[in-house]
Amino acid sequence: MKKLITALLTSFFFLQLAFAQTEEGNSRGLQTLDVPAVILDAFGNNFPDAVKVSWRRINQDYLAKFMQNGHSMQAVFTDAGIWKYTDIEVREDLLKDRIRQHILNYYPDAVFRKISLHDESGKSFYSIEIQTGGIRKTLRYSDKGVLLD
After folding, report:
1. Which letter, b or e, does each residue of 102-141 get, where b requires 16 or more Cβ atoms within 10 Å of its Cβ?
2. Residue 88: what pLDDT?
3. What stretch of H or E contains 88?
4. CA-to-CA dists, residue 45 to 40, 41, 74, 117, 134, angstroms
5. Is residue 46 within 8 Å of residue 83, measured between CB atoms?
6. CA distance 92 to 35
7. CB neighbours of 29 closer than 8 A, spacing ≥ 6?
8. Phi, psi of 91 (to 5 degrees)
9. Tens-of-pLDDT digits for all 149 residues of the chain?
10. Is beta strand 71-77 parallel, antiparallel or unpaired with respect to 51-58?
11. Which residues share a beta bridge with 71?
12. d(CA 92, CA 113)
């Protein structure tokens, strides 16, 4: 009975992924059926609560864009199903005060455009796109709040 329930749940999960929408207007968008099973398995193991999943190819890798626990995320897997990295969008109000203050000390008129936390095996950092004086800049900070560039 336990195996039957597991099989039904697994089938349901893959059917949900199979009917997920691709990105509108993206000619490189993939239907879930075009993504190899080894990648779908790796994705499901790493992100079991993912919803609104869309896929596309980036060279030899597969990029999944999705939502999980209220966060917009994207993850990249090799064609062998090995996870490479994840980018998680971060709202400005959740950015560490130390980082925000450092940026505003050097760029007092900075407007925060995009903030993401890049997580990769062995390292993670914040990538912060700001606009200051009409120019866009991207700054990188360690997860401890130290400027990397």
Report:
1. bbeeebeebebeebbbebeeeeebbbbebeeeeeeeebeb
2. 96
3. strand 83-89
4. 9, 6, 15, 20, 43
5. yes
6. 33
7. 22, 23, 54, 55, 56
8. -70, 150
9. 343 333 333 333 443 434 444 333 333 566 766 899 999 999 999 999 999 999 999 999 999 999 999 999 999 999 999 999 999 999 998 899 999 999 999 999 999 999 999 999 989 999 999 999 999 999 999 988 899 97
10. unpaired
11. 68
12. 9
- Specify whether the CB–CB gap between 92 and 108 falls below 8 A: no
From the list 52, 104, 41, 91, the residue with the least C-alpha distance to 74 is 52
Stretch (H or E) spanning 53: strand 51-58
| Residue-level pLDDT at 143 | 82
What pTM does this model have?
0.73
Q: Which residue has the tokens 């450092």?
A: 102
Distance between CA atoms of residues 18 and 34, nearest Å: 9
- What is the distance between the alpha carbons of residues 120 and 30, in angstroms, rounded to a whole number? 24
Which H helix or E strand runs over 83?
strand 83-89
Provide the token pair at 101.
């203050």
